[in-house]
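Quick question: who can interpret this fold?

. . .
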Amino acid sequence: MIEAVGLTGKRRSRTGLLSGGQRRRLDVGLGILGNPELLFLDEPTTGFDPEVRRQFWELVAGLRADGTTVLLTTHYLDEAEYLADRVAVVNRGRVVAMDTPARLGGRQSAVATVGWTDAEGAHRIRAADPTRAVLDLAARFGGEIPELTVSRPSLEDIYLSLTEDPAGEAVAVAAPDIAAPDIAAADIAAPAAEGVQA
């Protein structure tokens, strides 16, 4: 467990001598001892370096695979996208949207941006039908399209559009494999914290 939360080098250290981030990792480790059926994690990777954060993600994925239900709050939308089966956006104490990360806020059908480069430079267009745009470009170029990119709005883009108040704070809550009805997940996630719930 100590290795899973990145504290191997601090195995013999007293808690009072740990840094804030290290104490946070210790809290997470204690929370997952005993293989709980339901695990609440509030901003668990705050203070983690990128390597330990990714290790923690794998740990949570393993817990999910073993049947643990996880309710996770996070401001890291990449974390919510990686870990969550469902994401709820909470803004000012209210759930404003809940769906899978890929479908939240209509993300799967949002207008895409298609980009490419030619002799005139870089180009970007917004396309409701990106497949058609790519096929048209392929015909124009006779095959390969230089530096082709196709992207839809990120989870962060969707989050910002759902919260609409740049001064308001919101939090992501990740809820992998929640067995309870949607309303129960929303009720659990709705206290004072605002943001995205996955």
About this structure: The helical segments are 20-32, 50-65, 77-83, 130-141, 155-163, 182-189. The chain has two domains: 8-102+154-197, 111-151. Strands lie at 38-42, 69-74, 87-91, 94-99, 112-118, 121-127, 149-151, 170-174, 195-197. The chain is about 35% helix and 25% strand.
